[in-house]
Amino acid sequence: IHARQPGFSAVRLMYLGISLNSSIKVNMLGGNGNIQEEQVVLNISYINDQVYVNDFPLRSGVSRLKCQTLILRSENSDSLSDEQQLGIVNVRIMVHEWPMASSSNLRLIVVQEEVTEIDGIQVQQDEVTEIDVLVKDVQVLRHTNYTIPLKESMLYSIPTDNDVLCILPNIHGDKENCKPIYNTASNLNYIHNKQLVEA
User: Fold this and answer.
1) Tens of pLDDT along 140-172?
2) How far apart are CA 9 and CA 21, in angstroms?
3) Contact yes or no for 9/20 (Cβ under 8 A)
4) Number of structural domains found in the chain
5) DSSP assignment of 73-102
6) Pairing between strand 5-6 and 139-149?
7) Which among 23, 58, 65, 26 is positioned nearest to 42, based on CA atoms?
8) Which of 110, 115, 127, 193 is deepest in the core (most CB within 10 A)?
């Protein structure tokens, strides 16, 4: 069993929500043939009972996004500063809601994320940042974020064929709706019930 490690994110509290920049570490093959580490920065927000990624609203389930976002790249291991640039990333985002009690309005909103490509190049991600937001009605009571091994995450256990495909407006200029191929809610409920039985 791996101990959860605190995530490193810049957090800004708001009256009915939170907004944080999640930095996702990935490894990719550089032009010189060496493996280099990069960080993908995504803005994750929960405002008025809605989850946003880079200001784009997401529904419950797993979404596969293609969007432009900030990439941090170290020139070398001794460099104290990172090169910043914009890149096109493919990322899987899981959003799910756990009711905390049947007789209350307490809910736990869970968000997990996995980057699969940067500028058309496949990348490898070893850990997933999980963001947990405890909500009563539409007001955020508290939130936490952790890193866990990718292969132990709920997101990893969900087949990619069930993803909702989305392209964010900052690529094509026109806002395109997310259209589900399959509904992932049944998969999430099955996993949750399975975990309860095994516990």
Assistant:
1) 999 999 899 999 999 999 998 888 988 766 565
2) 6
3) yes
4) 1
5) EESSTT-SSEEEEEEEEEEEEEEEEEES-T
6) antiparallel
7) 23
8) 115
Which pLDDT score, from 0 to 100, does residue 147 have?
A: 93
Tokens for 7, please give them: 């995530």
Q: How far is residue 149's CA from residue 49's CA, in Å, rounded to a whole number? A: 28
Q: Which domain holds residue 95?
A: 5-198
- Residue 140, token pair as written in the block: 């955020």
pTM score over 0.90: no
What is the separation of C-alpha 72 from the centre of its chain, rounded to a whole number of angstroms? 17
Structure tokens at 112: 């997990």
Instruction: Give the pLDDT confidence of 68-110 residue by residue, as tens digits.
Output: 999 998 765 555 456 889 999 999 999 999 888 776 789 999 9
Residue 131 β-bridge partners: 111, 145
Q: Which amino acid is at 31?
A: G
151: which DSSP letter?
Answer: G
Instruction: With a cut of 80, say whether residue 56 has pLDDT above it.
Output: yes
